[in-house]
Amino acid sequence: MDAPARTDDVVAAKIPDGVYAETVLSVEHYTDRLFRFRMTRPSGFRFRSGEFAMIGLMVGDKPVYRAYSIASPSWDEELEFFSIKVPDGPLTSHLQAIKPGDTVLMRKKPTGTLVLDALTPGKRLYMFSTGTGIAPFASLIRDPDTYDMFEEVILTHTCREVAELKYGFDLMEEIRNHEFLGEIVGTKLKHYPTVTREDYPYQGRITDLMESGKLYTDLGVPPLEPAIDRGMICGSAAMLKDTKVLLEKAGLNEGANNKPAEFVIERAFVG
Ligand SMILES: Cc1cc2nc3c(=O)[nH]c(=O)nc-3n(C[C@H](O)[C@H](O)[C@H](O)COP(=O)(O)OP(=O)(O)OC[C@H]3O[C@@H](n4cnc5c(N)ncnc54)[C@H](O)[C@@H]3O)c2cc1C
């Protein structure tokens, strides 16, 4: 008689073909709405910094997948993700409970528009993000290619509450202390965190701060200039729309993988 199947054999037997099954390495919870996790990277998996992949979990007998920006850079041996916790969300109500050693599924083909290839050369790169929209930029600000292509990189991150900014601050600290990134990045990267619902030195929606000019005054840079400035935007549909209007008003055009231009956009979530 065959020995009874081990639990992980049973899980493995249900994993669909053409999907990677990776092991969770660490999990860090920031607030009751946000967490970060790292998992193993399949040896054959290639992606460009800023792209997203479909990740998932087996829920009962069925896999549930959602789009996730890969927050780690393309050179990293592990994969990092920064995630929302939606209380009744089909994926994140389960994903928020993962622990080191658990299995997370990932479809094999990454894609996305927030990539350096979709931008024409410029001097200053703005990355405008709200909430988990910082995830693709967490990848790009840790990629040396970003600093080869741009003299200055400005990451804006807007959240409702101060506690929701912590992932961004942790990234800055990690870059500063990293053995080779610290030197490559130097003073080229500027972090501009703002909050909308609590007292904080930098307050308000990024579009309001652009329109009033406070963003540029605070950073000590001139207003947007099409020959110099490039942009990437990742946030809610409303934030993308409003930011896009301001970039277009300044004379920047939207680009894509097959038609590089001055700025690119991607939704941080659907809904
Ligand atoms: C291109 C792309 C990249 C994405 N990258 C990420 C990422 O890096 N990290 C991440 O957490 N999510 C990301 N998402 C959203 C993600 O795909 C899921 O929607 C999210 O994980 C919630 O899944 P769910 O099944 O629990 O709930 P869903 O049924 O997918 O969502 C339920 C509702 O929750 C809200 N919601 C979903 N995601 C978010 C979010 N990120 N922030 C605020 N509200 C949200 C929306 O109102 C949505 O209608 C991305 C989405 C797209 C399209």
- Total number of helices: 9
Annotated CATH architecture of the largest domain = 3-Layer(aba) Sandwich
The biggest sheet, with number of strands, parallel, antiparallel or mixed sense and barrel status, is: 6 strands, antiparallel
pLDDT averaged over residues: 95
Q: What is the N-to-C succession of helices and strands?
A: HEEEEEHEEHHEHHEHHEHE
Beta-strand share of residues? 25-35%
Q: Whole-Å distance between the termini?
A: 52 Å
Order of the strands making up the biggest sheet: 4-3-6-1-2-5
Instruction: Please write the CATH class name of the largest domain.
Output: Alpha Beta
| Silhouette | globular
Can you describe this structure?
Helices cover 25% and strands 30% of the residues. The mean pLDDT is 95. The protein is an alpha/beta fold. The radius of gyration is 19 Å and the shape is globular. Helix 7 runs parallel beside helix 9. The N and C termini lie far apart (52 Å). It folds into two domains: 7-107, Elongation Factor Tu (Ef-tu), domain 3 (Beta Barrel), CATH 2.40.30.10; 116-265, Rossmann fold (3-Layer(aba) Sandwich), CATH 3.40.50.80. Helix 9 links the parallel strand 10 (229-235) and strand 11. Bound molecules: flavin-adenine dinucleotide.
